[in-house]
Amino acid sequence: MSAIDDLVSVMKGGVQNLGQLVNVIQNIFPRTIGTFTLSNATVTVVTQPAVKANSVVFFTPTNATAALVQRTMGLFHSASTAGASFSISTQSGTAAGTETFEYVVINPI
Question: What is the pLDDT of residues 74-98, one digit of tens each?
């Protein structure tokens, strides 16, 4: 039983170390999450004060219309205004205004 107890002890230590690693990564790369709906336009400005000039914005569709627009109109993160907002633009066409997305903003140090 000693070997099993040793294994359990080592595994507990590994889980604790993994938790600490997650905390370090979250502190190095702070993130902000939210949602937005595309405007009935070619550009949608999303108000988000946590945005910095070097922010990385990831977004994912949350309804079928958004998935279609992302695939067919070429959505991209087109601009950021530090402390205020970021913009999502279509490469071609105008969004209907019903497409919803979730986003994550990561601010590297």
Answer: 999 999 999 999 999 999 989 999 9
Q: Burial, 43: exposed, middle or buried (Cβ in 10 Å; 0-12, 13-18, 19+)?
A: middle
| β-bridge pairing 85-90 and 75-81 | antiparallel
Helix (H, G, I), strand (E, B) or coil at 44: strand
CB 103 within 8 A of CB 34: yes
Burial track 59-70 (b if 16+ CB lie within 10 A, e otherwise):
bebeeebbeebb
Domains and CATH numbers, the chain: 30-106 (2.60.40)
Judged against a pLDDT cut of 70, whether residue 47 lies above it is answered with yes
